[in-house]
Amino acid sequence: METPLTQKSKIEVRILPDLEALSREAGALLVELANDSIASKGRFVVALSGGVTPRRMYSLLGGTPFRDQVDWGRVHFFWTDERCVPEGDEASNFKRADDLFLSKVLVPKENIHRMKGEEEPAKAAEDYEREIREFFGKPGYPNFDLVLLGLGEDGHTASLFPESESLHEKRKLVIPIYLKRPSLNRITLSLPVLNSAKDVLFLVAGESKVPIIRKVLGEGGHKESYPAGLIQPVNGKVTWLIDQEAASKLITPLYSPLKLRGE
């Protein structure tokens, strides 16, 4: 049984037993949203995330039965953020998704819109913003059908970090992120772009995420102090998929009683 959706809220929290169940739920939801979008408008546009948690979901999508449940030729893949490393680097968000998923399904190369992490961050951001604007072909913020996100222990999501100037960006779609070590520099979609998506899906797992989950979703938390808490789509919905371990202390009137699927 799913955790109840708060009345009139655009936030849904689903608690799953473990990472495997979470990954299957995420894969099934992506397939459902993709097929609905393809049926209604002929295509599905998703922004993929990096990090450790989505890897299992990517593996599932690249295998049976998920691999055969979507017309991948009608799906366009973008990324929420990327590390400034070469395409083949093990730290590349693109490489992880490609190795586990994209190389396993029938998707045309022109449907894969990767961030070029090998370029200087400002240039890579400018190039990617240009590609996004040309693809969507309209002024203003693009409307992704689905944005996948993770949650850092410090509350960051995509490559938007707490107390960063990037959180106040209103004009740019894509932002270069310069960190203390150049090897850690990144490129990220801006907050208004993330909040213009139709659906946003957070994947959160593991004991290390307990404190930040309580701060972002728990009663009395200060969610707007954290980038992840600022993800509030203007005309969309946020779904949090959290494993039981990460959600173990998330017992508040807002989301209780927390029940696992199958109970």
Can you describe this structure in just a few lines?
By secondary structure, the chain is of the alpha/beta class. The chain is 25% helix and 17% strand.
Task: Write up what this structure looks like.
With 263 residues, the protein is of the alpha/beta class. It has one domain: Rossmann fold (3-Layer(aba) Sandwich), CATH 3.40.50. 25% of the residues lie in helices and 17% in strands. The protein has a six-stranded parallel sheet with strand order 1-9-8-5-2-3. Strands 4-7-6 form a three-stranded antiparallel sheet. Strand 8 (199-204), helix 6 and strand 9 form a beta-alpha-beta unit. It is globular and about 45 Å long. The N and C termini lie close together (6 Å).
Query: Ranges with pLDDT <50 over ≥5 residues?
Result: 1-9, 252-263
Shape: globular
Strands, total number: 9
CATH topology, by name, is Rossmann fold
Structural class: alpha/beta
Strand content: 15-25%
Strand order of the largest sheet: 1-9-8-5-2-3
Spatial gap, N to C terminus: 6 Å
User: What is the average per-residue confidence, as pLDDT, rounded to a whole number?
Assistant: 91
What is the helix/strand order? EHEHEEHHEEEHEHE
CATH level 1 name: Alpha Beta
